[in-house]
Design goal:
The complex is a heterodimer of chains A (112) and B (114). Chain A is mainly β and 112 residues long. Helix content of chain A is 0%, strand content 53%. Chain B starts with a strand and ends with a strand.
Chain lengths: 112, 114
């Protein structure tokens, strides 16, 4: 099946911990994106990568980090510096810049 | 900075009704516009992509139009069904300082009741 796989579906984090969310795609897409979704706020862009070994900050990058060592993978680390990490995180990919985006099923992160 | 607004925030209609969802954006220098559907607790499903050079795009009972100069798009759903109940999101692929970014509106929550 071609698509975007996010794991885990649910994740619980203790205060002060770093956690990493996985995003894998087998669509051979060059571009990948991470969004955060909060109730009533829509989707906000955290980081994006247009090509392997390169990425840019989005609108709310503080407290997050990413890597893009392989074309098919774009993991997101939520660090302890992110003060309000509880949210629904969505990963997306597109063939190139400004082309149709496709999304994974999301990871719901909760701070306990 | 690009801003996207969707009206109405919520809509409830009886089955079989035709309906229109509205999307507006502040910077007309866009490349493409994309409509998505999101079911509760799920990811986004792409419905339609309209390129900036196009006026409209159709897929089944869905028809999306784009007026780039006025910064507006509409999603028309014909003969609505209960299975159409979901949140519909509009997003624009920006130019200028928003190049390469997909900026979202807050969505319209649609409920179609039998």
């Amino acid at each position: 099946d071609g698509g975007i796989t996010q794991s885990p579906k649910y994740l619980f984090r203790k205060e002060g911990q770093n956690v990493t969310l996985s995003c894998e795609q087998n669509l051979n897409h060059d571009a990948m994106y991470w969004y955060r979704q909060d109730p009533g706020q829509g989707l906000r862009l955290i980081y994006y990568s247009q090509i392997v070994n390169d990425f840019q900050k989005g609108d709310i990058a503080e407290g997050y980090s990413v890597s893009r060592e392989k074309k098919e993978s774009f993991p997101l680390t939520v660090t302890s510096a992110q003060k309000n990490p509880t949210a629904f995180y969505l990963c997306a990919s597109s063939a190139g810049i400004n082309t149709e985006a496709f999304f994974g099923q999301g990871t719901r992160l909760t701070v306990v | 900075k690009q801003e996207v607004t969707q009206i109405p925030a919520a809509l409830s209609v009886p089955e079989g009704e035709n309906l229109v969802l509205n999307c507006s954006f502040t910077d007309s220098a866009i490349y493409n516009l994309q409509w998505f559907r999101q079911d509760p607790g799920k990811g986004l499903t792409s419905l339609l992509l309209i390129q900036s050079s196009q006026r409209e795009q159709t897929s089944g009972r869905l028809n999306a139009s784009l007026d780039k100069s006025s910064g507006r798009s509409t999603l028309y759903i014909a003969a609505s069904q209960p299975g159409d109940s979901a949140t519909y999101l509009c997003a624009v692929w920006g130019g200028g300082t928003s190049y390469g970014k997909l900026t979202f509106g807050q969505g319209t929550i649609l409920t179609v009741h039998p």
